[in-house]
Write a structure and sequence with these properties.
By secondary structure, the chain is of the alpha/beta class. Helix content is 64%, strand content 10%.
């Protein structure tokens, strides 16, 4: 799993190879300038060793070179920060783009089977956490590795005995960091999963706050949230506790390294005093500084490794989303063109889950230009039938045809362009009224748009908006639910598709306006194949065919009068609504 995640990260870093190479080069320059300072400081100390033995001219030259090194260090550090931010946020943008693009082509069953907040958490929160880990890696990882290697080379050149002391103790620091970090990945993964669950719950509660308040469900929700919060607290504390032990553990090892270098260095100063290869006090001060420079990157890298565990856990969830199987491509299918509107369902079988059969052996024939109403109790399969007609889901058995063509043999785009849908749940994008109305027909003229708005009885309230048709609206509280639904009806009227699907299309409209809109629908439905899902049976009296569904099967079909005369299930439904 971690290997696949690492390969995925490398794939996203590949386009920025040039910037990464420049980052590595700047890291080397930064480290070289940083490591030159302790050596120069040691030389400066030797220039003032002994009474009356101060080389002021040499000291000033050393100070000038040290000043230049510090300036180079500051400049390269700034450039490294700029480049690493550029790479990290470009990678973040690329991953989010791919994740969002994948969401557009995922089958609906993926989104239907998960809480929306959980998916949003992956695209937003997990991507942000991954970017933070990546940024920390760029800022500290490259310079840390270069510092360790640079210090070792310098120590070997100065005194191999000191270098060996440092080298032999190093594995202890590495093993300590690896032991801790290898156990924190699963903890951060669990933390990420619980955070997504928490986000999903919050999203659900905010989106349905009216329902929560209406049923006085606040205390129960608080209890659920407390349980989620407690789980998140425990996961977070556990992950942070174990990851935070890395730093003090490596610092202890580093203190041991410093003490051993000081001891060995002091003995070397005493042992080599007065010889040609003397190990001076300046050399000792340099190697002591280098020992701290050598151990410091281990602390930083241990922190980076801890953050990487979190970033890897988040990246794994992102790549799992991006790697989900997309909706099967229909690139080789034929284009339907403008359909006449003859729709048939032949021996259709479908279920959302194999263990729960829903529709079995369903046969429906809707001739072109006819109005077909679908009625039945909740959960009988009405909305599922609409999903199959639009090919949001593919049938498990049998086939759905339009003008004799199997819908699986034509492109989804050309099929859906032939349908106009008005659903019980309205949807408006954050845009002007005109952009919302013309979404399905961007080429519509101003006159056509206004005519459709008048037919849907929404022209008057549009003109009362601050800027009329240029007013920016959205799915917020600026418009009532009924006004939003009228806009959706006008949107479909403007498209004039050959087939219509009306799923409780007037459920949010008052009775007076509904009667007017029904008149507009009668005009719109002339010569078009219409599928009407309705609970208010008074709205479907004029349907050419009424399908009565129960438990995924059509148990009755006929006209309104025919079904009433049979005194069957439809008769009972109708009388239940209109009985005195």
């Amino acid at each position: 799993m971690k290997k696949n995640t690492f390969r995925g990260i490398l794939q996203y870093l590949k386009p920025y190879g040039g910037l990464l190479a420049l980052t590595v080069l700047l890291s080397l320059v930064n480290v070289a300038a940083t490591l030159a300072v302790p050596y120069l400081a040691g030389v400066g100390i030797d220039r003032i060793a002994g009474e009356g033995n101060v080389d002021f001219a040499g000291l000033f030259r050393i100070f000038a070179v040290i000043g230049g090194c510090i300036a180079v260090t500051a400049l390269t550090q700034w450039l490294l920060s700029v480049l690493s931010n550029r790479v990290a946020y470009h990678v973040l943008a690329d991953i989010r783009t791919d994740a969002f693009r994948k969401l557009q082509i995922l089958p609906l069953k993926y989104l239907d089977g998960r809480a929306y907040g959980e998916t949003a958490s992956v695209v937003i929160s997990d991507a942000e956490q991954f970017s933070d880990g990546l940024l920390l890696g760029f800022n500290q990882f490259f310079t840390g590795i270069a510092t360790i290697l640079g210090v070792l080379v310098i120590l070997f050149l100065m005194r191999w005995e000191v270098a060996l002391v440092v080298l032999f103790v190093t594995p202890l620091s590495l093993l300590t960091a690896k032991f801790i970090s290898s156990r924190t990945y699963s903890m951060f993964k669990k933390q990420s999963e619980v955070r997504a669950e928490q986000t999903a719950f919050i999203d659900e509660m905010i989106g349905n706050l009216k329902v929560v308040k209406a049923f006085c469900h606040e205390e129960e929700n608080e209890e659920v949230f407390r349980e989620l919060n407690e789980r998140y607290r425990k996961c977070s504390l556990k992950a942070v506790f174990f990851s935070s032990t890395t730093n003090p553990a490596t610092r202890f090892v580093n203190a041991v390294v410093y003490a051993l270098v000081a001891l060995v260095g002091a003995l070397l100063v005493l042992a080599t005093a007065g010889t040609a290869a003397a190990f001076t006090v300046g050399n000792l001060s340099s190697v002591l500084y280098y020992s701290t420079q050598y151990t410091k990157p281990f602390n930083e890298i241990s922190e980076v490794v801890t953050e990487f565990q979190n970033a890897f856990a988040c990246a794994a969830r992102l790549f799992a989303l991006i790697g989900e199987e997309a909706e099967p491509s229909d690139a080789g299918n034929e284009t339907l063109g403008r359909a006449k509107g003859e729709v048939k369902l032949e021996e259709v079988a479908f279920s959302y889950t194999p263990e729960q059969p829903l529709i079995e052996d369903l046969n429906v024939c809707a001739p072109a230009g006819k109005r077909v109403a679908i009625v039945g109790p909740t959960g009988c399969g009405k909305t599922t039938l609409i999903n199959l007609l639009m090919r949001f889901y593919d049938v498990n058995g049998g086939k759905v045809t339009v003008d004799g063509k199997d819908v699986r043999a034509v492109t989804r785009r050309s099929l859906r362009e032939n349908y106009g849908m008005v659903l019980q749940e309205t949807w408006l994008k954050e845009a002007t009224v005109r952009e919302n109305l013309c979404m399905g027909n961007p080429e519509a003229t101003e006159e056509e748009m206004i005519a459709a708005a008048k037919a849907a009885h929404c022209h008057n309230f549009i003109m009362r908006l601050p800027e009329g048709y240029r007013t920016v609206i959205g799915d917020d509280g600026n418009l009532s639910q009924g006004q939003k639904q009228l806009l959706c009806i006008a949107r479909v009227m403007l498209c004039r598709p050959p087939m219509l699907i009306l799923d409780e299309a007037t459920s949010n409209i008052d009775t007076r306006t509904e009667s007017k809109v029904q008149d507009a629908f009668q005009t719109l439905m002339e010569g078009r194949t219409c599928f009407i899902v309705a609970h208010r049976l008074s709205t479907i009296r004029n349907a050419d065919l009424i399908l009565v569904m129960k438990a995924g099967k059509i148990i009755e079909q006929g006209t309104h009068e025919e079904l009433l005369s049979r005194r069957g299930f439809y008769y009972e439904l109708y009388n239940a609504q209109f009985a005195e």
